[in-house]
Amino acid sequence: MTRPLHPETLALHAGWRADPSTGSVAVPIHQTTSYQFHDAGHARRLFALEELGNIYTRIMNPTVDVLERRLAALEGGVAALAVASGQAASAMAVQNLARAGDNIVASTDLYGGTWNLFANTLKDQGLEVRFVDPEDPQAFARATDERTRAYYAETLPNPKLRVFPIREVAEIGRPLGIPLIMDNTAAPLIARPFDHGAAITLYSTTKYIGGHGTSIGGILIDSGTFDWQAHAARQPLMHLPDPSYHGAVWSDVGAAMGGIGYILRARVVMLRDLGAAMSPMNAFQFIQGVETLPLRMARHCENAAAVAAWLGGRADVTRVIYPGVQTGEEQRRRDAVLIGGHGGLLGFELAGGRAAGERFIDALELLYHVANIGDARSLAIHPASTTHSQLTAEERAQAGVTDGYVRLSIGLEHIDDIIADIEQALDRAG
Ligand code: PLP
Q1: Please, what is the Cα angle at 249 between 254 and 53, to 5 degrees?
Q2: Alpha carbons 228 and 187: distance in angstroms, whole number
Q3: Is 183 in the pocket of ligand 1 (CB under 6 A)?
Q4: Which pTM was predicted?
Q5: How many whole angstroms separate alpha carbon 163 and alpha carbon 333?
């Protein structure tokens, strides 16, 4: 078909038709480590990258390949690389471009695991991350120097849930040869970062992509629109001949293959060496999840908006944090990046502070109390006593976590049942 397909159709069909040897419609789980080469010449060509094909499951696998193709198609990218977790995706997204002595500029509004990775582990490895407040996109330009290799942000970061100014920051980076990497975990389908100039997206597939809460995984997606060849000095890892791969220059090899230089290097260098591969079984689970992603995202958004509106009428709730609610004109403009809904995450503040927050959590009967988001089930957590407890009070305030803050990830249950549980827990929290 030449006509572009809609997300609902791509989610079911992209990257797969049927197994050529058995006719199997469901994607088979290729639970194998290695692949028999046709002959010596075939093996030689695969290793020299003259031909693309299966060598070893650490770097490619036919089941994982279908997930990669499907998510690349849904995102409007040219290629993808699935990895063992969202954390592995964040680490590799940066390490694929930056090495000791280099830096990246990142938004302050980040998932705590990414914050730890950037502020501590990458720093220990000699890679500096400069954090800037996304309120002012020009802060990215001011923090940039000749060793800045990437910009990094989350589309819909919790707990603040303020949409990141993707276009403004992407436009600062492109002429300088600096790609914008967007973690779009909280907003699959409802935000399309490539449409606004981002070069790379990544996901923790653990969340909405799977939806079932059974499997940990991550993925990197390449827009194919970033001109690596034009920025040789800025991007040495993409441009210097790679001694580990017959002197390959990834920007040139990737351009010849349709603009896949970034993802190609991530696969054949980073994944080969660091080894955080996604298992075929998990890829199969994520494929099942993706099939219903458009339906699920619509319902997550609908239910969360209803909960946000309902919470707005409660006297014991001092603030509701949800895109479009209680935000200024400029932020409302940024929130317009979201299409078809405002996501499934929301926060609220209880007048009773920390004690009320903990009592609310303990009183829940239907919502699960877990450190996860994006599950089909509704989830809740009190960040001040859990995910953000190691921070000082000042750091917590900066992160947008007050003592009475509760984070909800609204699921797919009937809206009346979700609200009834929240209502009874609020009543008991006092
Ligand atoms: N990015 C975001 C926005 C997340 O919420 C998470 C996990 O909570 C991650 C990345 C890390 O993903 P994973 O838990 O799959 O390693």
Answers
A1: 50
A2: 27
A3: yes
A4: 0.97
A5: 9
Q: For 74-163, where are the E strands, in sequence order?
A: 79-83, 103-107, 128-132, 148-154
CA dist 71 and 53 (Å) reads 20
Q: Is there an atom of ligand 1 within 6 Å of 87 CB?
A: yes
Interior angle at CA 16, CA 12 and CA 20, nearest 5? 140
Q: Is it true that the peptide bond before 7 is cis, omega within 30 degrees of 0?
A: no
Cβ count near 201 (within 10 Å): 31
- Is 83 in contact with 220 (CB distance < 8 Å)? yes
Q: Can you tell me the distance from the alpha carbon of 42 to that of 48, in angstroms, rounded to the nearest whole number?
A: 10
Rounded to 5 degrees, what are φ and ψ at 425? Answer: -70, -40
Give the pairing of strands 218-222 and 79-83. antiparallel
Report CA(193)–ligand 1 centroid distance (Å): 18
How many whole angstroms separate alpha carbon 165 and alpha carbon 118?
Answer: 21
> What are the pLDDT digits (tens) for 100-139?
999 999 999 999 999 999 999 999 999 999 999 999 999 9
Percent helix / strand / coil, the chain, rounded to 5: 40, 15, 45
Distance spanning both ends of the chain, measured CA to CA: 59
On whether the CB atoms of residues 350 and 406 are closer than 8 A, the answer is yes
**Burial (0-12, 13-18, 19+ Cβ within 10 Å), 163:** buried
Ligand 1: distance of its center to the CA of 46 in Å? 33
- Rounded CA-CA distance 129/131 in Å is 6
In this prediction, residue 430 carries a pLDDT of 82
395 CA → ligand 1 middle, Å: 20
Q: Locate 140 and state its tokens.
A: 């990215």
- Residue 97 DSSP SS3: coil
C-alpha–C-alpha distance, residues 236 and 304, integer Å: 44
Q: For 308-317, how does the pLDDT look when each residue is reduced to its tens digit (9 = 90+)? A: 999 999 999 9
Our answer on whether the CB atom of 86 is closer than 6 Å to any ligand 1 atom is yes
- Residues 284-307: pLDDT tens digits? 999 999 999 999 999 999 999 999
Please state the separation of Cα 273 from the chain's center in Å. Answer: 22
Structure tokens at 113: 């695991």
Which structure tokens are listed for 428?
A: 């008991």
- For ligand 1, atom 12, name the residue with the nearest CA: 86
The one-letter code for the residue type at 146 is E
Write out the two tokens for 188.
Answer: 């699959």
Q: How far is CA 244 from CA 239, 241, 347, in A?
A: 14, 9, 47
Residue type, 32: T
Q: What is the dihedral of CA 115, 266, 177, 113, to 10 degrees?
A: -10
